[in-house]
Amino acid sequence: MIPWPLRSAARRLAAAAARAASASVAHVPPPAAPRPPQPCPPEDTAALQHLRRGAAGEQPPSRRPIYRREFPCTTMASRDHSGLTRQLLDFQHGTVDEIDGERDPFKELKARFMDFKQRNCVDNNSNYQNLAQQQTPKFMVVACADSRVCPSSVLGFQPGEAFTVRNIANLVPPYQHGASETSAALEFAVNTLEVENVLVVGHSRCGGIQALMSMKSKQDDSQSRSFIRDWVSIAKSARLSTEAAAGNLNFELQCRHCEKESINSSLLNLLTYPWIEKKVNEGTLSLHGGYYNFIDCTFEKWTLVYRPGLEGGSKYAIKNRSTWS
């Protein structure tokens, strides 16, 4: 049994705590209004400017260093995507949200999809059903993300013919670079789909190559992080080779040289992947380069020759070079 003095003290403490709680509730200030989110400042880095100029078909400016700024706004990754997915699952087919038809950017895409469905599913249903079961492409294509150089449009690939990955400047990182969407796509295409050809396609007026050729290593190292700079740095060796071979030319011609130099750099990077080198040596996989010049609408292609057992001289050569014009 609890002694009386302790019970009395406990009651006094409880009463005091109740009075303090009621007083704090009475004087709780109203919550402050949430601060509106701070908009991110416009991205005006030189790397992005080069990408935009390349997309607009503008001539690149004279060579200059890239300047960057730190952005104070940061959005943390959210896990609310599960809620969005539930909304999609609850969506009833046949219902349509109210959209201003004149401003709907998907109106034309819907018409194109219905045409695609008619040609590929309705008119050629047997092939479509086969593709629904499996894919057996003969090509793995690494192309640029530039909106003007879609390999399916330029080279006429049909569904199931080419496993494709696109990135800035159509680069292939070396095996030592680690995981990336490009290396993952290569692993799946070569080891699982067992494609017979890997084709790296570059193009004219590439904004990513312009960004690469504009880099000044000493200045860039001290600037804030840029995803574009970090990515195109994969092709730094192509830039250095271009400066050595074409350093006396103007910036535009240097970029044109580097556009092809970077393709060959990516072809050599492909051989750093053990399973790619193995299949090339066995003769079950071929590596090709392609260059699409949309200024005069021509396409140049070539095949890499790899001779690992050659002593003296280069282990690499080009064959089957041709231009389609």
Short overview:
The protein is an alpha/beta fold and 325 residues long. It has 13 helices and 6 strands.
Mean pLDDT: 82
Q: Level of helix content?
A: 40-55%
Structural class: alpha/beta
List the secondary-structure elements in sequence, H or E. HHHHHEHEHEHHHHHHEEE
**Total number of helices:** 13
Largest sheet: 6 strands, mixed
**What form results from the Cα inertia axes?**
globular
**Low-confidence region ranges:** 2-6, 23-28, 39-44, 62-69
- The fraction of residues in strands falls at 5-15%
CA gyration radius, whole angstroms: 29 Å
| Main β-sheet, spatial strand arrangement | 2-1-3-4-5-6
Distance between the termini: 103 Å
Strand tally, please? 6
